[in-house]
Each structure stands twice: as C-alpha cells, then as structure tokens.
Amino acid sequence: MPNYPVNQAETSKILGILQSTRLFGELGDLDLRNIAQCCDVRLAPKGTYLFHEGDSPAGFYLIGKGTINVHRLDEAGRETVIRIFREGESFGEVFLADNSPSPVSARTETTSTLLLVRRTDLSHLIAGQPGIAMRLLASMSRHLRSLVDKLGSLQHRTVAERIREWLLLRCPDPEGNQPVAVRLPSKKYLLAAEIGTAPETLSRNLARLRDEGWISPSGELITVLDPKAFASADLVS
Question: What is the pLDDT of residues 225-234, one digit of tens each?
C-alpha cells in the first residue's frame, strides 16, 4: 500500500515539487494528488549519495531544489560526469520499470530537496487506475521529446554559445544593459559537463569571452558586462 504523506504541509510540499517539474507539470490536479501518495520528500545535504553504481534504487527522483551530479567511476577511480541535473528536472526514470543494478551513481552537489517517486507504489497506482498510465506515458513522451530537441540544439551550437546561454539563463534581466554577476558551480568540470564539453575547452572559451569584453571572471563569479548586447553577439566564429 502507498505510504501516504503524514500531514497537509507535506502533501502541499510534494504537490508543489510535482507541479514545478517538467515531467509532471502538465498533469491534472487529481493525477498529481494520486502520484503524491507515492512520493517521499528527501532533504539531502551537499555531498549526499542518493545511490551508488550497482545499487537498485527504490524509484526515481524529482528535484525541487539543488544540483545533482550523476557520474561513473572508471577502473582507476576517476569520476566521469554523465550529466548535471537541476531544479525542475528528473532523473532515474529507468528505475520505474527496471530494478536491475544502476550503471551510475548520483550525488548532491548542493543542499537539495528531492522527491523519491517510489516504484512499487506507483506501479500499484497504475495497476488500479490504468488511465493514469496513458497520461503518464504522454507526459514522459513530451519530456523525452524536449530532451532530444535540446540535445540536437546543443550539437549545433559552439561552446561559446552554450556558455552564453548558461550565463543568460541565470541573469535576472537578460534584456538589461547593467553588469550581472553569475555564480559558477564549485567545480569547473561540473559546468563543462553541463554544457557538453571538456574542462580545457571551457577554460579556453571563457578566456576568449573575457578577452572580447563580454564577461569578467573573478573567482567563483562571472560578471556578464552587458547581457543584452551579449545575447545578440555573433559568437560562431
């Protein structure tokens, strides 16, 4: 049987996270309330492992707040980042249908608020309400399509353009002309993984954007000197 949320405050928190995620955000209120009965809220400090390679997680995760590093270790123990997930995203959906050992590990890079969608309870919900399965499949299909579109777009943009998009998304007013400071991830390789490049290539392109007068790096901050002009600049060459 589902492990129902213990109080209204927890239910409201779960519903808020479900509604804010791309995966479930388009579902109706009744579906969200049913799915909420299959969720646990997890508050995880920085550096918490949600699961390790070889584990069989109890479900998949939605991110209400924070940053998650999904990675693998090679034979020498070196970490290879597969992807960085942020607020509003989900990861581990494969565990909904498959309880085989995970090929990756997941660790919080910041203090995070997550929802664990329990596989067993969600399966019971779908078995009892087959209609919700079709609505979930439609939502997951739209989610997958958006990820494929994003990947295709990423492949056709230069690293400098990807850096620009990452920075402008974090500017409160990307149409403004005033300098805006953006905080970088604590480790540069995380940003490199997030935009799909190598750390060395990231560094070269940051230096180029600095030399061209678009940004001013300082420690963990990068100041976008003129967001509006930066947004329309030709960075292709």
Answer: 999 999 988 8
